[in-house]
Amino acid sequence: MVSQTRLEYGFIGYQVPVFPRASRSARVRVPIRKKSGNNEKHAFEILVSVAGDFLQEGETFNRVLKEQEDEIQSSKCNLSDKETYNEKTLSGYHQIRTVNKFSHAPDQFNLKPYSSLKGFDKLANVSGRNANHSSELGISSLISGEFSVGQFEDAGAELSIIQTVKSETLQPTGSLDALEMDCKPPHYFCSGSKTSLFKDWTTLGPSRRSDTIETVSRDDNGNYMADQRIKNLSSSRRWRVSPNLNGGASFRNDGKRRKIFHDGRTSYSRQRSKRISPLKRRDFFNQCRFSGSDRGFQLDDRFNSAADKIVQVQFGCQLLLFVYFLLFGFRDRFTIRVASSVASPHPHPGSRDRNVKLRIKSFKVPELLVEIPTTATVGSLKRSVMEAVTTVLGDGLHVGILLQGKKVRDDSKTLIQTGISRDGKHCNLGFMLEPRHAQIKLPRCLGEQGITSHATSFTLDPRTSSISLDPPVAGCINGAQRDHHLVPSLPNISASTTLPNSQSRVSVPAISGEALAVVPIHHRAGRREFVQRRIRRPFSVSEVEALVQAVEKLGTGRWRDVKLRAFDNAKHRTYVDLKDKWKTLVHTARISPQQRRGEPVPQELLDRVLAVHAYRSQQQAKQQQLKSGV
DNA sequence: TTTAGGG
DNA sequence: CCCTAAA
Fold this sequence. Notes:
Pfam families: Myb_DNA-binding, Ubiquitin_TPR1. Keywords: DNA-binding, Nucleus. Residues 531-586 form the Myb-like domain. It is found in: Nucleus. By secondary structure, this protein is of the alpha+beta class. Among the domains are: 378-435, no CATH class; 541-626, Serum Albumin, Chain A, Domain 1. The strands form nine sheets. The chain has a three-stranded mixed β-sheet with strand order 1-15-22, covered by helices on one side. A three-stranded antiparallel β-sheet has the order 2-11-10. Strand 16 and strand 17 form a beta hairpin. The chain starts with 5 loop residues before the first strand and ends with a helix.
């Protein structure tokens, strides 16, 4: 009996990168009046797209990241485990540490090093980046970017010493325990003077907009709790702006930022970044002192709560504010608040359209629980979480709306009827991100607040069990999935906890450590809504590799077999997808490298594609000749 | 359901 | 990626 114990990992949080745009107003203007029959949906769509505005900024981010990475390498940063995890993540930590030294923020704000935070020594996390920029909805775009799942170990007092847990067998008492969280539900309130907090920063740029991200959780009595610690952390851990950022040396486009529009057009916008001086920075930090006022700045002493995995990273010169939230699920008591204030001195005087200005107040992100045997490897855990997350999110997201803490279910009501017609600040509006086909369960222990819980259940697809009997296939899948570890990702600050009462779970048997696909059960086929377009998921190089390999073996025209052979685990890849991908691969191989977009496919693979394609079409021609000849 | 192709 | 005729 080698440990058939099953351990449950509470995966109850996602990091949600927030990328407020400096150039765009965050205001949502929704006509109150119903114009057409579809208008009730209209409001929701607007909200989704606005949410997307916050979440989209991936390319810029990655470029900055590249910059940071270069700096790291040149400064011979000693990272302990470069190969297992991407360096970009690690560089984030390094940068954060650098900032702390630089700005003396720790003293000023009574910062504690990460290592003093319980639960930070071993983390499971999911980070996402916006890998493509052509999705219709920003949220989808973010989600459909590539995710990586990793586990981290903070090996010491320095933030830079972060090791990735390699593929070793999990032990029930070893690393796993570290994943458990011993704290109470997080009660924190990161609030702020929305306009003044980042005043120095925002006034540097052309935009007057500033954004404050608030994380709020309520205690059992529904009271908002405040935690200054969060504020401290978030306002101090900033990435130092790379001095050569403005020089544009590392920017591919000479200081311009490329932006790809939905239809693939490319445009350039002036980079309006401006380097922030140390003096400015100090002013900024000085401004962030806490007054202990009633704005939620009461000092909460629970410094050891594993809840404060919140890192706010700010690139001053880019005017980008990255805030990573760990959304501890904790039922529905946790919300993210994204409040953006627009300092618009000139409200349109003659605006006769009766619009509501809505402010995105909160996004609630679904939670997930993973159940995995102790004999599973870390790698399989990663893949399982990865799969589960993408399955949940890949199903599409809904935006739920909370009014006065209650969910607004009736989509057909107008905003006036619902009571959203007043200015956003008075109507206490909240927005939730929830899986599209989530099963809705009401947790036994939680019925208050009128908020329902959204969870998605997973079960094993029986067919995938056979995958382990076919090593070559499994290896192929593995190859395709290994890419997740290579994907550049956001700096990962996150937490994982055990939460036995979580509503979502993913069961994963230990079969040769391979990732096992999980598929969601659609309990309620509420298909009455319009079918949403699937999120875009660009093929990774390793997926292409797997595809090419399979087609070399099976030929074109047997896409179902190709799917079974090489993508049986990838639930989101249908045989039609594979066929389509092959089509685009052939096309890609024929066009010049300059015309190609997206992640570059190695020429070697493209050559193989052409070879196979040429061979197949030749065969086809022969067949045709035979037929016509006879 | 799966293939094959156009959109 | 979607849609769908045709097999």
